[in-house]
Design a protein that fits this description.
With about 325 residues, the protein is an all-alpha fold. A two-stranded antiparallel sheet has the order 1-2. Strand 1 and strand 2 form a beta hairpin.
Length: about 325
């Protein structure tokens, strides 16, 4: 058990190291480009340029530059954005991370719950008119771009019908910290997370329906029916257990990529100050320290989320752990 944990931790560190080298090479080791001028920004004074060159070691060898940059990102955490009046960027990223995490967790709650309901109903009522309607609705949700759907939601809830009884409860665009008001936090994230989850509900419902229908031909299902298990137990217990692994694998990939910046468009449309919106602001102003910080910390979020999902996957299918131990 300890050996497997250490092996997994070592793999995570190797992945993060590889990403950090790649990101550093793209931003600061490109031939013919002066990284000092990139960090200082347009119109920087010679004094600022000289200070940045000495502070980051850009007048020294590339390995020393890399070590200095990683030290500023993960040890001293004083990587500074000169575009943003000399503000440290790591505290900005850490302050934005809870917003993105809250949005993705809410969205995951909606898309898992919605896809389970639709997927199971479609599988049980396969080839009926209800099945066809649910699959068409899922396909529509899957086809709508999240930024377009978000703008439509804002059009009705923030302007046209905001003063009606239907949407008068909708707060202004933005984010309310949970510590400030749990109810305000939930209201601020309800529509953004539902918008983000809309395409995933359709996709996961279709995947779950296909997996459930395939599972109905398994020997264990026939055995359960022969022992007198009712339809509810067959579909919701035995069927879901056989269909769960593919569903969880897909969930792990999507959850991790949303944490790593996949929710950028939703955060921009709904003015949520998350990591994705921070990355967008950095791209708009060519703020390289901010972009590098968001990319690196997002990569860590993705790696850690994948490791957690992999652990859950192992718990759901003990044969994986057994195979690893055998090797």
């Amino acid at each position: 058990m300890i050996g497997a944990f250490l092996s997994r931790a070592g793999q995570m560190l190797l992945v993060i190291f590889g990403i950090s080298v790649l990101v550093f090479s793209i931003f600061f080791a490109t031939p013919g480009a002066d990284p000092t001028a990139r960090i200082a920004g347009r119109g920087a004074s010679p004094q600022v340029v000289a200070r940045i060159r000495a502070e980051y070691g850009f007048d020294r060898a590339l390995p020393i530059q890399y070590v200095r940059m990683m030290e500023k990102l993960f040890v001293t955490r004083d990587l500074t954005s000169y575009v943003d009046h000399g503000e440290p960027v790591v505290p900005e990223v850490m302050g934005a991370a809870p917003v993105t995490l809250s949005l993705v967790l809410w969205a995951a709650f909606f898309w898992v719950g919605g896809s389970l309901l639709i997927g199971v109903a479609s599988a049980v009522l396969r080839d009926s008119w209800i099945d066809r309607i649910l699959m068409v609705l899922g396909l529509i949700g899957l086809s709508m771009p999240v930024f377009w759907l978000g703008e439509v939601v804002n059009l009705f809830t923030q302007s046209r019908w905001h003063d009606t009884w239907m949407f008068s409860w909708v707060p202004s665009l933005g984010y309310v910290p949970f510590s400030q008001s749990p109810w305000g936090w939930a209201k601020a994230l309800f529509l953004p997370s539902l918008t983000l989850a809309s395409s995933f509900i359709g996709l996961y419902a279709r995947v779950l329906r296909a997996e459930l229908l395939g599972a109905m031909g398994e020997d264990s299902i026939r055995t359960a029916r022969a022992k007198g298990a009712g339809p509810v137990r067959v579909w919701l217990w035995h069927g879901l257990r056989l269909s769960w692994l593919s569903y969880v694998s897909l969930f792990g990939l999507d959850f991790a990529q949303l944490l790593g910046g996949g929710a950028l468009l939703t955060e921009v449309v709904f003015a949520l100050p998350g990591v994705g919106r921070l990355t967008y602001q950095g791209l708009a102003t060519l703020d390289l320290p901010l972009i590098m910080a968001t990319v690196m910390y997002s990569a860590i979020f993705v790696v850690v989320a994948n490791a957690l999902i992999d652990g859950i996957y192992t718990l759901l299918d003990p044969r994986i752990a057994g195979g690893r131990n055998a090797r």
